[in-house]
Amino acid sequence: MTHLKLFLAAVLAIGITPLGIAGETPQFIVAGTLENRRIDEASGLQAGRGDVFFVHNDEKRDIFVIDPSGRDLGSFKLDGARSRDWEDIARAPGPNGPLLVIGDVGDNRARRKDVELFFFDEPRPDEFNRHHEVIHTVSLRYPDGPRDTESMAYDPSSGMMFLLTKRDRPPRLYGVPLATALAERRVEAEFLAEVPGFRPPTAQDILVQPGRGFYVSQPTGMDISPDGRRAAVITYRSLYLFERCSDETWVEAFQKAPIEIVGPPGTHQEAVAFSADGYSVYVTTERRPAPLHRLDLHPEQTPQRKNHKTFPR
Length: 313
Known about the structure:
With 313 residues, the chain is mostly beta strands.
């Protein structure tokens, strides 16, 4: 077992692709460490204006603000929100400026008839250390029964909020228009497609991570780039990058094979976010101290942004 672990660590360190070929695949680097030690179960990560990121734990009402190196910039309570199982955070346009959206969508035992999304105004730098209020809550139900979900993102190209399930094989993609979510108190998400591109666990995964190895392919976080052209989905083993062509919907794009990047090192990655410019992907973990990893995309791997819908940063 020791030799197997050493071999797999070497594979991860040199960035061998799933096909065993070392190529031009971008590699994770350590951008820093989450400085605020109250972040002990990071489950959601979202870029905001001014080169900051918002982070939240799994089951608390605290939201933390960090810079791209993990330096602490402040924290605040979200009043008016319940915290049963916060799993992801997204950013979407609102009538008076950018909104942040907390997804209280976790459901490990698939028992919740309804989950909740909490919307609030994105704080400005001078507002990072005071309480903020939920301005809208919507209860969401799936059309085919309860689902455990840890991945949520807003798509600027379609104006949809997407949710990607964790325990279904393959994962299932649901959506609800942002306009509907903001106008209603209760909504039913639409089933859009299965997403088949996640590599199943291998015998090595199961041997190296007893118990958890069976679940290394399950989505634990998602983000869509500001121009709506890329989706990043993190699992316990790998980051998957999906690309959408300008004439495609995300339902079509999610049927294509993604780029898989094994890593970053660790077994509890649950938070992923594009940088505000879309040229890097950040990942952090539920453990403490939590490293903040960054993946810089090569220019040719980042779609051009002309004529694509976005909203002010």
